[in-house]
Each structure stands twice: as C-alpha cells, then as structure tokens.
Amino acid sequence: MTLFPWVIPIRVVDLLEILIVAYVLYKLYLWMRGTIAVQIFVGILALLLVRVLVTAADMTIFRAVFSSINEVFVLTVIVLFQPEIRRLLLLLGQNRFIRQLMRSPAQLERVAEIVLAVGDLSRRKIGALIVFERSTGLRNYIETGTQLGALLSRDLLFTIFYGQNPLHDGAVILRNARIEAARCILPVSSSRQLSSDLGLRHRAAVGLTEITDAFVIVVSEETGTISVSSDGELISGITVDQLQTYVIDALSPRMREESEITNSEGSTDSAAA
Predict the structure, then answer these.
(1) Which of 7, 10, 57, 142 is 20–30 Å from 103 (CA)?
(2) Are 208 and 214 a contacting pair, CB within 8 Å?
(3) Which of 226, 259, 1 is nearest to 111 (CA)?
(4) What are phi and psi of 4, to 5 degrees?
(5) Which residue ranges make up each domain of the chain?
(6) CATH class given for the domain over 102-272
(7) What is the distance between the alpha carbons of residues 212 and 134, in angstroms, rounded to a whole number?
(8) 213 and 132 in contact (C-beta within 8 Å)?
(9) Which pLDDT tens digit goes with each residue over 128-167?
C-alpha cells in the first residue's frame, strides 16, 4: 500500500515541460504587454475559469452554453488575435535558426551575385542605390522608374549603375531573383537625426525604410563606402563580408521561392534554344 496515494509522480520530463510552457507564456506576455491583446487574453482566461466552475458545480444550462461556445472558440481566437498571430509568424520567420534552415544553394548564389556587384561598385566609387522588396509591396515606387523584369546578375547590376548608363540615376528595386525596375524615385527622409553630410541616396534609403520594411544598400559615389538601411536606421562603413551577412539575414524569409523562379526561367530558355 502506498503511503501517500494522492501524490502524483513527477518525472524530469514533466518538470522540463512545465518550465518550457512557463517561459513561452512569459515571453508571450512580454510581447503582448501594453496592447489590447492582453485584455482580450485576460477575458478568455476568465471565461475558461467560469467554465471550470460551471463544470464542477454541474450546472446543466451553463454547460450547454459553454458547449456551444466551444464550436466557434478557436475561430474567435484567430479573428481576435489576427494582428498578434501575424506578428508572431513574422518574428518566427525572421529567426536566425529558421532562416538558416530555409536557405538554398540558389538563394546563396544570388546573394553572392549582389555582394560581388556591390563590391565592384564600391572599389570603383560608383554610386548605387539597391532596394530589396520584402513583405511590403513596392509597386508604387517601381512604377516611377523604368521596368525591366530581368533576372538578377552581377554584371547587370554593375552595368545599370555605370556612370554612362541612362538608368544609373535613381534606385534599382529587386523582388526575389529579379530586377523589377531601375531609375526609381524614392521618398527622402526628413529626419534630423541623420548627419548633414549624408547625400540624397542615403536619405532616400532611410526615407523608404521609414515607411516600408524594405532593405536597402547604398554605395557612396564620393568615398565608395557601403551602407545598409532597414527600419529607418542607417549603418555605414560596412565591409563586403559584413554586407553578405546583412543581405542573408534580410532576404532569407523573402527569397525562399527563388530556386523555383530560377529553374523555371532556365527551362524556358532551354526550350527556346
């Protein structure tokens, strides 16, 4: 006969599971704190508590009411927490470990093409403004320039920004593995936090990332310095190796279909030949 029959045996795995769940709930609370989602979550917890009390007291009518609520409860939660669920999925997509799993050889090859082109432009002090579309569509800015719809390549990027090319003035906008347009006009930032020494290219890069989630590379025409901008911030004086890391981190979630696009283009070219 067990001395304490009411004691529930607890394994190490159970303790680990409790710690993980507690940590996840704590992080969710920190993430939602200060938003209306916290109030909604508290309201849902209150309903669950009432349901437990109703079940324990065996209240037939209330149990029937809560049973009917159960049928639409999941859908209701999804509708109420839609903005928070979207933000959570975006955060998961931006996680370094998940991005590492999603990388493909074709994607890394395209990143290498971009980095090599920017390195060439920097060494020759050729100014450049390269925009990468992410989740926010940039159609309004694409339409201000000359639409190309060409496959991304090192030589094409370099040629566009070469001084004698009529397309060199303005921004190039990339979408996945394609150069959508060149000579595009971008909004210029009016932030007073930016240095007065910055030129129009740098201010345009910051201006676009202030209102969209685009990622932008800038090459200074005067010094050849490489800068990147995202979320309204500008990081200047980075090396080519550092640039590769920035580009991979910024584009991995957005370029996961690149391999399929490249393969389809290759099959079309083969068929035409």
Answers:
(1) 142
(2) yes
(3) 259
(4) -125, 85
(5) 12-93, 102-272
(6) alpha beta
(7) 9
(8) no
(9) 999 998 888 888 899 999 999 888 888 888 889 887 777 8
